[in-house]
Amino acid sequence: MVLHQLKTRGISSEKILSAFSQVHRHLFVPEAYAGYAYHDRPLPIGEGQTISQPYMVAEMTQLLDPVPGDRVLEIGTGSGYQTAILSFLGAVVYTIERNGLLLENAEKVFRRIGMKNISSMTGDGTIGWEEHAPYDGIIVTAGSPDVPPALLKQLAPGGRLVIPVGPRSSQSLKLYKRTGSGIISSEHGGCVFVPLVGKHGWPAEG
Ligand code: SAM
Questions:
Q1: Which residues are catalytic?
Q2: Helix (H), strand (E) at residue 96
Q3: In the structure, which protein residues have their CB atom closer than 6 angstroms to any atom of ligand 1?
Q4: Out of 97, 120, 127, 146, which residue is the most buried by the measure of CB atoms under 10 Å away?
Q5: CATH no. for residue 133?
Q6: Segment 4-53, tens digit of pLDDT
Q7: What is the mean pLDDT of the chain?
Q8: Does the bond joining 149 to the residue before it have cis omega, within 30 degrees of 0?
Q9: pLDDT for 74-108, tens place per residue?
Q10: Is residue 51 in some structural domain?
Q11: What is the spatial distance between Cα 175 and Cα 184, in angstroms, rounded to a whole number?
């Protein structure tokens, strides 16, 4: 997976490649899918949600570029795989998941593998997590119609926000940086994520 899916597609950071070698993806997928854990694709994790494709997790991590001690807010814990990669890289991670059952499952895995520096809560991540702001990095792992204003507000000077933005059907991966002269944004290709549902995201369906 690391060689064929990540390195050949431009993931060049040795520390990120090492994290993907050492955080085992099969621990974060339902048992029925364990045999597909290192395939080049997202997988169902229950509750209509997915664990993202390994390359997408790596690409977002490389854009976020966390250094040890960085305070990182993650919106959309899902399986907890991205959370664990960030924690492995030494970030202090705050993660929010709107689905309580998925969060419980992810927390079980964090305990099982002894992941440290992760604080989690069930809730609507589109309003951020004011209590622990500002963040050096914010990563949103669900597709948003636009950038939730609270997330830009909770970004520290020099902070980076990585978020898929666009229609429900497909998005563009965007990076926002808070610089001395304001927010600078850049685009990093197309992607398809499950919707970010909440006050500053999409309405819940049904
Ligand atoms: N990063 C995850 C992983 O590695 O497994 C993948 C996350 S999955 C693609 C997106 C997650 O975002 C889902 O679990 C979904 O329930 C969650 N989500 C959607 N809207 C949310 C919101 N407003 N706040 C928090 N979580 C949200």
A1: 52
A2: strand 92-97
A3: 49-52, 57, 75-76, 78-79, 81-82, 96-99, 102, 124-126, 141-142, 193-194, 196-198, 201
A4: 97
A5: 3.40.50.150
A6: 899 999 999 999 999 999 999 999 999 999 999 999 999 999 999 999 99
A7: 96
A8: no
A9: 999 999 999 999 999 999 999 999 999 999 999 99
A10: yes
A11: 8
Residue to probe by mutation, ligand 1, list 28, 77, 192, most atoms within 8 Å of CB: 77
Provide the domain limits for residue 47. Answer: 2-191
When divided into structural domains, the chain yields a total of 1
Q: Is residue 133 assigned to a domain?
A: yes
Which atom in ligand 1 lies closest to the alpha carbon of residue 79?
5
Q: Which of 20, 26, 50, 93 to mutate to test the pocket of ligand 1 (most atoms within 8 A of CB)?
A: 50
> Is 173 inside any structural domain?
yes
Q: Is 102 left (phi over 0), alpha (psi -120 to 50) or beta?
A: alpha
Q: Is 180 exposed, middle or buried (0-12, 13-18, 19+ CB in 10 A)?
A: exposed
**Residue 105 is assigned to a structural domain of this protein:** yes
For residue 37, report the distance from its CA to the centre of ligand 1, in Å: 18
pTM of this structure: 0.97
Q: What is residue 139's predicted lDDT score, i.e. its pLDDT?
A: 98
Separation of CA 181 and ligand 1 centre (Å): 31
- Residue 23: HSE in the Cβ half-sphere, 13 Å Cα cutoff: 27
Around 117, how many Cα atoms within 13 Å sit in the side-chain half-sphere? 18
Q: Whose CA is nearest to atom 27 of ligand 1?
A: 76
Q: How far is the CA of 141 from the centre of ligand 1 (A)?
A: 6
178-196 pLDDT, tens digit each? 999 999 999 999 999 999 9
